[in-house]
Amino acid sequence: MPMNPFARRGGDPHMLAVSMTGVKLGDHVVFVGAPHPGRTAAIAAKVGLSGRASAAVADAGAAARLNKAAAQAGVLVDADISDARTLPYGDGEFNLAVIDDTASLFEQLNDADRIAVVREAARVLRPGGRIIVFGGGEPAGLDRLLSRPAASPLVLSGAINTLLGSHGFGIVRTLAEREGLVFVEGLKPRTV
Length: 192
Fold this sequence. Notes:
By secondary structure, the chain is of the alpha/beta class. The protein is about 30% helix and about 25% strand. It has a 7-stranded mixed sheet with strand order 3-2-1-4-5-7-6, sandwiched between helices. Helix 3 links the parallel strand 2 and strand 3. The longest helix is centred in the middle third of the chain and has 14 residues.
């Protein structure tokens, strides 16, 4: 069988995102937006029966797409229709927040709304909890030849690192830039 040199190696297109989030059995994960339902379901699958996966999505269509992807993956994700600036969860309910900015969630918001999203993510995280933000990086390979721009300039430029560090998160670092994605992690301080 001939191999396609342009095809991604391996069978799981979400393996990198799942690995970079560091999600594990028993985690309580909140997704702020779910622009790629299959990716969200793949990450949610790692929490197992002892964990919890919830997603705050913008509308009923996004909730339906996420529910379909979760059902196909055989996982449970609670899809809650909500504004990302006012999450429908209590303080400290989660130990991991995931914001997938590959659909440019942050790019579409003004500065005040970006701050509100980050503060809400910090509010719903337990002390010591983590936030992972990922977005589109510099195009590589065929995408570079087609001159496709980065999907998430705020993530790529490091502005998201500054935003997280200024609004509720301690140690903030860019974890990796790989396969056209940039991963940024922030930690909520254990004490205020």
